[in-house]
Amino acid sequence: MTYTLAGYGQGSLDGVPFSTSSFVFTVTADSATRQPRSYGWWIPNTSASMSIAGLGTFDLLSGTGTFVGTNTGVVGFGRRPVGLNLFYGPINPAFLSWDMLTPIGPVSGHAHFSSWQSSGGSLINTTGGILLFDDGSTTMTFTAIPEPATLSLLALGGLALIRRQRRQRV
């Protein structure tokens, strides 16, 4: 699966502050590594990159994961191994039954930055330096789509179903 988290935030990259800017995190994860948690599901990300307007696009070198709280209807992004959340939100009833194995979104809503500068967590290292967002609120959009290989399999399955239905009608 590919997950995207898009919103606005301010912070610093490699010690250089940036004002409120649009950002997009794009992460990929192998759904076979999905892990149950007391709150829902967690998947460690296999890769992650981020783009911040005016700064560029960078790969995340620190381990991260994506989660859904099926008890609260919230999605988020955090440190790996399972640790402090970096984003949580948006909150939406659609996430109450989402299993992280199927496409969803885009879903937008209120979200929070948290624990970016917590002394209890590791720093998020990127190819552009240490990334820190200021804790606070934002509006965020979350989307989950299957990887292109999965989409191809779904398309082939759909074509086979259509062909089968046509044969049954003839």
Written overview of the protein:
The chain has an eight-stranded antiparallel β-barrel with strand order 1-2-4-6-7-8-9-12. Helix content is 13%, strand content 55%. Residues 150-156 have low confidence and may be disordered. Strand 4 (40-52) and strand 5 (56-59) form a beta hairpin. It has one helix at residues 148-169, and strands at 2-13, 16-29, 35-37, 40-52, 56-59, 64-69, 74-79, 85-91, 104-113, 124-126, 129-133, 136-145. It is mainly beta and 170 residues long.
Number of strands: 12
State which percent range the strand residues make up.
over 45%
Helix residue percentage: 10-25%
Radius of gyration: 18 Å
Helix-strand category: mainly beta
> What is the N-to-C order of secondary-structure elements (H for helix, E for strand)?
EEEEEEEEEEEEH
Low confidence ranges: 150-156
Distance between the termini: 38 Å
